Every structure is written in structure tokens, then in C-alpha cells.
Amino acid sequence: MAFCLDPEGWGPVSPVYYNFTPCFADAVFPFLLGVGLLVLSPLELRALKNCTAVFSPTTPWFYIKFALLAIIGLCQLVYLASLSTITRSLFDLRIIATLAYIASLGVAGYVQYVEYFRARVPSGIVLFYWFLSVITGFVRFYGQAQRKVWTQNQALFTSFVLGLLATIGELFVSAYFLRPPSQYESLNGEMDSSPEVSANIFSRLTFSYLTKLMKLGYENFLTEEDLPDLPPDSRTDKTREDFDVAWQTEKKTAFPSLPRALFRCFGVTYLIGVCFKLTGDVMAFMQPNLLRRLLVFVNSYNSDNLDVPVPLSGGIVIAMGMFTCSFLQTMTQQQYMARVFSTGMNIKSSLTSCIYRKSMFLSNDSRQAKSTGDIVNLMTVDVQRLQELTQSGQALWSGPFQIILCLYNLHSLLGNSMWAGVCVTLCTISLNAYIARKQRALQKVQMKVKDKRTRLTGEILVSIKSIKLFAWEESFIARLNEIRNNQELANLRKKGVYSAIANFIGSCAPFFVSCSTFALFVWTSGKPLTTDIVFPALTLFNLLSNPLTQIPQVITQFVEATVAATRLRDFLVSSELQPDAVAHLDAATEPGQSAATITNGTFLWDESGTHPPALKNISFDAKLGQLACIVGRVGAGKSALLQGLLGDLYRESGNVTVRGHVAYCSQVPWIMNATVKDNILFGKRFHADFYEKTVRACALTEDFAVLPDGDETIVGEKGISLSGGQKARLALARAVYTRADVYILDDPLSAVDQHVGRHLIDNVLGPQGLLATKTKIMATNAIAVLAQADSITMLRDGAVVETGLYAQVMTRTDSEIYKLIDEFGTQREQEEVVEDVEEKTDPLASNEDDDEELIDYYDGKFGAPLRRASTASFKKPTLIDDVPNRRSKQVKEHSEKGQVKFGVYKEYIKAANLTVVIIFIFLMLASNSMSVGGNVWLKHWSDVNTEYGSNPDTGRYLGIYLFFGVTSAFLTLFYTLVLWIFCTIEAARKLHDRMLRHVLRSPMSFFDTTPLGRVINRFTADVNRVDEVLARVFTNFFTNTFKVLFSIFVISSANPAFILFVVPIAFLYIFYQKFYLRTSRELKRLESVSRSPIYAHFQESLNGVSTVRAYSQIRRFNRINEYHIDFNNKAYYPSMIARRWLAIRLEFLGSTIIFFAALLSILAIASGRLSSGLVGLTMSYAFQITQALSAIVRMTVEVEISTVSVERILEYCKLPCEAPEVIPDSRPPVDWPTEGSVEFHDYSTRYRPGLDLVLKGVNLRIKPREKIGIVGRTGAGKSSLTLALFRMIEPVGGYISIDRVNTSKLGLRDLRQRLAIIPQDSQAFEGSVRENLDPGSRFSDEELWHALQLSHLKDHITSMEGGLYSRVNEGGSNFSVGQRQLMSLARALLTPSKILVLDEATAAVDVETDQIIQETIRKEFKDRTILTIAHRLNTIIDSDRIVVLAAGKIVEFDTPEVLLSNKNSLFYALCKQGGLVE
């Protein structure tokens, strides 16, 4: 009793009262609190000193807080004085503890004063100090009340009670009444809108800071604006920067490891989670020990040997201990979950950003090895694997730790008999390791096949227009289904079998462990297997089943994540573009100074040199202010030279120098899915004056007049709503507006009409154009522009064959360039327009006043240069189109509201087969029933043993118990096999097939208004969830549901009064469930919708990567990408925290169930109604119910989330389709069309509802075998005419007839397969040359070679390895644009149609090849009707008749001779502008 003179001593438990002794309660508690704060407060004060001090006006709550603190201090002084009269010794530890506590009050007050002016979030240390003061205060108050202290010392009791009340007030005011933000914080935006940042420690522990959002989501449907900001440490720019530092360090090692870099970056947060997990696991294993104490208590209470009954308070304390352990386990478990899920999200965001950044600089070798689909798969699937492992991967150490804890506790219960269980456990782990190896091999195959499917899907969607024109839908569906059904799903079926075996082993293991252990115990120990041994052991076995079940699942995830990490590592270390390929110097400033030079340069397509060199030993020089033109045949290397200047090719030797900033126009214009204006500005500030000049110079003014929203028109994916000429001029306008120093232009005139080309030459490229002072390097097939060139370089087979100034070249008649210009072009003076055509005669001609205004912009060729466009401040992209009444707006991605409709479940069950689903549920119910039966039998066995005090008839009891276990395990195997093989895979096959068919059969208007990334998202993320996640989620949902139902049934059977407690708890449960479901559902939908822009932007960036790099826009595009990722995470993060919010509350209800189950058992024992076996059985099930309750709600949401993917797939399964492919009652004759006559009958059409007509009342009659030329300004409706012929757009009035058959009444396949077309944008697909020419395998090799010979591709294909089976890369990237157009010509030659449409078929080929092709067409198609749209008027000047279109109407239609004889005709004006007539 030294240092404390109380007669009850130190205890800590009083021998008189069921409470702590006064010495322990009044000395230890205050001392630990006081000393703890005194030790920790310096750390808190140091952290506060690092915060910025701000002036914040004091509020009444500030004074109330310190007034309460003063009252607490005063009460403690009175308490101290009163205590001293009792102890009569200054060395009594209660006196010392009180003094320490009083000192800590002063420190607490100082910390609170400092934090008021430096931080808005209350100190966690101080709040916990007040919280523990309240808790220990109640314990002490309970002890004083039991001892009736007020009768001995009223002042002591009164001061203590008043101090306790003031402490409660202090805790309340400190936690919930924060100071308002200061003016400094408000003005500088330091108040983060993330609720987590401003949440106190209790709010963080219980996730209460999310309650506001939960309430908002319960009352209203959440929208994008409702989402709170991410915590600063979780924003992508921060996580990516941290990972980048770790990865750069890792790359310096011999074998870079992605997991090691991730741990270096995110390991601290993860290790904090480890600490919480460790605590939670220990708490979980406290329960069996408490259960054993409870059963010992029950047995002792029922014992006949006791003279004095055991007090019930002992049992009640054990019940409270169970409640406390369960609640602490919940708290620590949820903190652990929050940290690992947050870490997983940070890993995903950082890796996604790094993948994007890496893809911007991939070398050609790496780019060929990784298609767009492959890289998208890295983002969608592989990164997801790592995220999932982060979330559940701690089971790799936690599982063994739990097994060790379990075995240790079993050893204390059963002695050495538990080693039988260890042997079974080791066998189980060995089997799981074998299965894991098999699963790893299957996972590798799965990822490769998934890549193939994603790649082909992407190509189909990119080339959908060509596929429809050629009626190739069925061929490509067959190709995709071969990969999907015969490879991907077949492999998935094997994975399902191994998953079922793993589940079987996991189900068997606990039964075999318990059977072997109990058997050995009975046969070796000689002790009875009583209830106080069996049920703690059974609880331990149940706890053991968790790691044994989790470990195989996590091993599977680990295997998948290892494969993913390897794939990601390989990608992140893959080769990049040569960093020193181009030397970038300051801009040239003096006339005649070189602005771009190549000296003895040899360039390769790839660093490995597997292909012939792209360019061999070339030298090139472009000087300031010059127009340097590059000419040559198709495949000569024109584009390669430009790519060499951009640094896109590998420079093997020589030097490349570029001075100043670069602007680039690719041969295939790269257009963003944005407004016309945004495409022109391209991240630069808007300057109205120069913007208008650029628009006029690039001949876009009249286009703006006809576009639905002018320059605010959204152009769609790849500019799909624009014509080829409009896209080319838009890309040129982007380059002009940038005001760069060096312009690299890849044939920008090929897609525009000849007169428009003339306008661009005069106003942009020529000596009086906007770019007069700039260096312009242009690869071109347009002969007209050569007359304006300062230097001309001719290439052949990747080498320079001739170069020189225009003036020099034109004096050498033996020059090849001279011959080219002499044969195909006209002299410079001939190209001058002799007389102006009056504006009224040519509505298509440019405005002369505008041209003059542009010319006045310069004071001579080397006047003041254009000032470079300044970069605009970053504008965040948004999911919402905030421009009202925009006619061209894209369809916002549809998102359902409210809970997933029953019809979605019905459709999924229908796809999975209702009968099989019923069998699955029946087998699962039977499996759970057998498991419960085994436990009931075990209860009966232990009761018998307890009653007899021995182990009678052990073999029978053990055999029946084993029968229950093995039967349950086999039923688990059967229902898992049924689920995977007959339900999941079958449903996945049907849903994917339906979606694919409906997407491919959708009209072109769907692709015009739907970003490609959105569709890809359905075919990747949503299909992956249906393939692999849905089965797992449904299994977990039904497992936990049956577990809760059986648990309640068992407990209620033993204690019917338990139902009285279950009912109110059930109401609370349902309330929390609904409260959570509404919000969580919408958060998940927002997450799904916000995921699409990530992939859409990524694919768009990859398509235009050369352009983005050339314009030095990488940084801006990186920021856009990171913003999209953050926006997606803004929906994911609160969704994840919402699950923690729910779990805390539901598992608290579960802890309450444990408490009431124990309490009712104790009370029932007093009345003699329960045996110890029944108590053990009810408590073992009560322990299971805690986490199962929250798991049900969590799985309910997961089911809904996963079913949202089904819902999204079904949405695309209901897309409106085009007209039927075949109409049985309206099929044309087999040899139709026999003549080739075409007639438009008052035909009108538009691209989609809501837009203006593109063809208006067209009446046109074309005779059989007639050659018709179609001309008109860009956007006049030329391509629309051909699309109408193929019914790519349907009529709104009139119809088209071919050979007097109304095409509107035919099936689309019947129509399109009978017509031939060489489209404007030629497409090539990954695969072989043969597959590109003939996807349906309808023609022989001889026929294909003949078509290639006629299209002048035979020599090139012969030179390739494999001939007809040579590989064509994704998008035909190993063929030039001209060669891809020749491939389209070969396709047309294979189509035995009487009607051929040439839509600018030779725009991308040189004039010599063009002439040869035209001769081929005249010869090979002489007996066919030909409709030709051409920019080069000389290609259609010999047509039988000419159609001139303007604004969607036919304004002229006659022979060329008649039209040219009329000098007021538009055709004459066009020819004159193009230099064809004088």
C-alpha cells in the first residue's frame, strides 16, 4: 500500500466492488493522461510552429472554451485540496497524479490557444486527451458512486462531478466549434474543399466528415458539382511526381522493380495500415479467449459443486469485453481499409499518368510493339490488378500471422493435438501454390488475348465508316468472335475451374483441420472434449477459414498483379524517341539564315534496323522566309523527311538542326474532339484580330457560316462531322495561328479543291501570305505550289535525287523537276489570274477585300515578323457542355438514376440461364446448411462429452462431423463450377456478342456524336467486370447473406428473446443500407461516366502524338490527362470512404448483437434454460455476424456496381440500328445492277436530326456507264452525295434508284456489296495484306495479285516479307497514306460492281501516279458507271458530264465543253482559279 493509503490497495480490480480500486483509478488514469500530454505536446507545438500564423477574429466559442478550461482547473484544485485531507500525505500518488493532470491542463490550454491562430483543425492529441479524460472520468465516477463518496467528502465528489461536466463541454466545444477562416486563407484559397482536410480526429476515425455528402446523396441525385475535392496528397500531380522520383531512382538499378518503386513512394501510408491491421487481427483473436472465459463462467454457474452462486456481474463484464474488442476491431479494420484503398487509388492515378506521359515519347520500335489497344489495356486492366492487390494484398502476411495466432490459441486449448491441424494447413498451402502457378500461366494467356481483342475492337471502331461502306460487318464480327469466344472465354473457363478447386480446398481445410485436431485430442489426451474447448476452438477454426480462403484468392491476385507489374515495367522501360535526334536552337533572325537543316542524315524506321532505312544519306536546307517544297512518287520518303525534322525517326547518322518553334500539319489532319475554335487556338490565347485574319486566310469564313454553331461547333471524334477539306484547312489554321518559326506541312493541299488551294497559296504560303516571313517546309503533290517555291527537293526511294531553287530548276530542261512541272503544271506567269471573276458569278470565290486586308498585314516579305502566340492559362475540361442551345453538342454519356432496374437483373439472369442460376442458389444453400449442420452436431457431441465427463463413441461423432464438412466442400465446388462455366461465361459471351452487333449496326450518327473512348470503355472496363468480377461479387453476396440468416436463426432458436433486439437493429440496418445505397450508387455511376474521358483523351492524344510533340503541347496535354484522372478519383474516393462510413456503423450494430447475445445467454443461464453448448454455438455465430452484416450491404452495392456494367452493356444492346442488312421480301436480282444507271428523285438528307440539310431537293439522272465528275467548294455536299448513295445517311425526302430499283427498300448489305467505292479517308487494319483486301476470303490469290498489279502496289507488296500475308501494322502505319489509297483502289478492283464511286481517291498520291491510276480506271472500269469527286480538276475534265454543287444543291450539270463555253458558269470560274483555263 506504499504511496496510496486506501484500504482496497492497488488492485487494479477491487476485491469488494466489481470495479477498479481508488488507488488505481485516481492515480494511474490521471497520471497517464497528464504525463502523456506533457510528453506529446512538444511534437504538436512544433507542427503548429510550421503553420502560417494568421489573424482570425475571436468568436464567443473561443472564450467559452477557455472559460470551461478555467472551470476544470478550478475544480481540480478543489479536488486536490479535498483529496489531501483524506490522504494526509503529499507522497500519495493520487496527489502527484492530480498535480500532473493540473499541469497538463495548462499545456492543453496553451496548445489550443496557439492552434486557434495557426490551424483550423483541432489538435488530435488534445482532443484525445479530453476524450480519455471523459471516459476515465465516467469510470471513476462509477467507482465513487458505488462507494457513496459524497457521504464521506462532499466537496471532493462535487468538484469531481463539476469538473467532469466541464470536461464534457470542453470536448464538445473543441471538437465541433471551429474558428472561421481568416481573410488571408479565404483570399489565397487555402481553404481546401476536401472535407477530410478540415475534419477532426474523431470525424476521421468514424468517417463522419462524409455524412454531409451522404445526406445530400440520400435526398437528391448526386451530380458532378456535388463531388468534394480530393485530399492534396491524393491528387494526381502529387502522386505522379512522387512516383516519378522513385521510378527514376529504381531505373538506375540493374533490374528495375515496379513494386519496389511503388513501395518507396507509397510505403509509409501502407505501413500505417499494417499497424491498424495488426491491431485488428489481435482484437479478433481476443474473442475466442473471452468466449472460453464465458463458457467457463457458464459451466461454473451451472456447477452443482459451488455453494455460493457466481455473481452475474462477472458474465456481464465478459460481455462488455466482447463488445469492446469487436468495436475496436471494427475501428482499426476500417482505418486499415481506408489507407490501403487510398494507396491503391494513388497507385492507379500515378501509374495511369506515367503511362500517358510515357506513351507521348515512345519510339517507333516500342509503338509497333504496343498498339493503342495494348496501352489502353495497361491502363484499364493491369493498373487495376495492382490496385486490387494493394487493397487485399496484406493478406499475404496477415493470413500467415492470423494462422500463427490461431494455432497458438489452439495449442493453449488443445495442446500438441493442434499439430495435426498444422499438417493439414501446410498441405493446403502446397496445393494452393500449385494452383497459383497454373493460374499465373492462364493469366498471362488471358492478358495477351484480351490485348488482341481490345486492339481489334479499337480498329473496328476507328474504321467503322469503311467497314460499313464495304459491308464488312459480318467478317469483322467473325474475326472478333474467334478471339473472344474461342480464345478469351475458353481461357477464362479454365481459370474458373481452377478457382473452383481453390474454393473447394479453402472450404475443406477448416473441417479437415478441426477433424484431425479433435480426433488426435480425443485419442491422445484422455480429456473430454467439452464445450469450453470445442466452441473456442470452433471460433478459432472459423477465424482460420478466413485466411485459408483468402490466401488462395490473394495468391491468384498476386499472380495476376505480378504479370501486370511485369507488363507495366516492360512498358515503362521501353525505348523512347531519340532525345538528341534534333538539335533545337534559337530562331533564325537574318534573311538567308538556315532555319532547318539535315546534313548527311540517314534515318531508320526503328532503332533495331529490321526495316530498310527510311532515308539514306540526305542533306536538306531550308532558310528563313523560304518555301521549301519536297516532291516525289508515293513511298519516296516525303513524309519520312518531315518526320526526321520532327525527331520522330531514329537518326543513325548525320545531323538535324531546327531553329525556333515548330508548327506541324500531318498528312492525315489530326482534329481534336472539341470546338472548331479550340482546334485553331490549340492552347494559345485568343486574339480576335489575328484569329479573324487566320480564318480568312485559310478559307474558313464560309464554312463557319454553314456549320451549325459557327466556330463553336463541336467537330466530333477525329473531326468526323467535317469534310476532308475542312479538316485540312482547320489543321492549317491551327499552324498559322500558332505563329511559329518553322512550319512543317505534309501535303496540306491534297484534300482541298484546286481553287481553294490557290487561295491558300496566295494568302498563307505565298510571298504575300500570312507566313511570308516564316520558314515553310512542305511535302506536296500539288504542282501549282511549286511555282511559289524558293527551293524544291525531289526524293526517290528515300534519297535526294535533285534539289535546287525554282529559278535554277526551270532553266535546266534535263531536270526531273523541270519535266514534272512542265508536264503536269503551268509556269508561274500562267497561273496568275488574268481577269477577276465578279463576285456575283461565283459565290464560292474568296472575298477580294478580305484578301487585300490580309496582304496589307505585311509590309513586304521580310517585314515585322508575327509575334508568337502566347499560351493561354489552363482551362479545366468539363463533362458538362456549358454552352446553351449548342446544336452540335455531343450526346452526354447516359447515366441511369436510382437503383439498378429489376429488368437489368432479369436480362442478366436470362443471359446466364434461369435454370442454372436456380441450381447455383440451391447448391449454395445446401452447402451452407451442411456447414451449419456440422456445427450443430459438434454442439451435440460436446454436450454429451460434458455430461459424461469422457469421450464416448468418438468414431461415430467424428465421422458424421466429417461427412457434414466434406459434403459442404463438394457442394461449394459444384456451385462454383456452375457459376463460372454455365452462368458467368455464358452470360458474358451473349452480352458481348449482342453489344458488338448493335454497335456495328448503329448508324454513323452514333459515331459522330459518341467519343471513341466511351465506346472502348464499354468493351474494356465493363466487359472485364462482367467477365471476371461479377461472379466473385455474386458469390460473396449470397455467402454473406446466408451466413447472416443462419446466424440469426441459430441465435434466435437458442434465445427467442433475441428477436426483440433484432427488430430495432434490423430497422437501423435497413435505414443505413438505404442511406448508403442511394449515395454509393450515384457515386459509382459518376465514376463510370468520368472514366470514359480518360480513355477518350488518351486515344486522341496517341492518334495525334506527333502533332502534340511538334507544337510543344505535351505539358498541357499531361495536365488535361491528370485533370481527367482526378475527376474520376473525385467520384471513386468518396465512394470508398462511404464504404468505411457504412462499415463503422453497421459493425457497431454487429458488436451490439454480440453484446446482447452474450447478455441474453447470461440471463438465460440464471433461469436455467441454456446449456453451455448452446451458449457456445450462439456466440460462435454471433461473432460471424458482425462483419457479415456490413459485407452484405457492401456486396449489395458491389452487385449493383457490377450490374451497372451490365446495364451499360445493355444500353448499347438497345442502340437504334440501321435498316436491316437483308430484307427477304425485297432482295434485288443476283446480277443487279446490270446497267449502272443512278437517279436521285428530289432527294434531301441531313446527317442527324437537329442539323441542317446537307443535300436539298437533288434531282439527278446518271445514264449507264456514264463518267460523272462532281465538283464544288469544300463542304458543298460532294461526299454527302456518295454517302447518300450507300445509305450511310438516310433520306428525309425523296429517294435514290439504281437500275430503276428504289434503294431505300433494299437491305443495306444487298445495297453496299453491289457498289464499289474508293473512300476519301482510306483505312488499313492490323493483320495481313490479304485480310485487308478481302476480309471475307471471297477471292483467290491470283485475283488479289491482279488487283494489286493494276493498283501499282504489287512491287511494294512483293518486296515485303510474306507477300500477300505480309503484316500490316495497326492503322496501316507501315504504309504511307498514298499506299493506303492504292490499297483502297485494289479493293474496288475486286468488287464486281457496275457502279464505282471515287471520293477524292488519288488526293494523297503524286501527280505521276495519279495519271497512271486515272488511265487504269479508264481502262478497267470502262464499262462501269463512275462518279468521281476530285480536287484536281484535270482528273475529271474528261468526264462525260460534270455536276457542280453549292450549299447542297446542284447548280450546274452538263458536259465539260458546255460548262467551259459559258464564262459565267461556276465550273469555268473553278477551272480558271485552278489554272486550267486562261
TrEMBL record:
Domain ABC transporter: 596-822, 1238-1472
Keyword Repeat: yes
UniProt entry keywords in alphabetical sequence: ATP-binding, Membrane, Nucleotide-binding, Phosphoprotein, Repeat, Translocase, Transmembrane, Transmembrane helix, Transport, Vacuole
BP term (GO), one: vacuole fusion, non-autophagic
Domain ABC transmembrane type-1: 271-560, 918-1200
A GO MF term: ABC-type transporter activity
Membrane topology classification: Multi-pass membrane protein
PROSITE patterns: ABC_TM1F, ABC_TRANSPORTER_1, ABC_TRANSPORTER_2
Transmembrane residue ranges: 16-40, 61-81, 93-113, 125-143, 155-178, 261-286, 306-328, 395-411, 417-435, 497-523, 911-938, 958-985, 1057-1077, 1146-1166
Cellular compartment(s): Vacuole membrane
Top-level taxon in the UniProt lineage: Eukaryota
Pfam families: ABC_membrane, ABC_tran, TMD0_ABC
Major location (coarse): membrane
Coiled coil: none
Cellular component GO terms, alphabetical: fungal-type vacuole membrane
Family note: Belongs to the ABC transporter superfamily. ABCC family. Conjugate transporter (TC 3.A.1.208) subfamily.
Function recorded in the entry: Cooperates for the ATP-dependent vacuolar transport of bilirubin and glutathione conjugates.
Protein name as catalogued: Uncharacterized protein
Species this chain originates from: Lipomyces starkeyi NRRL Y-11557
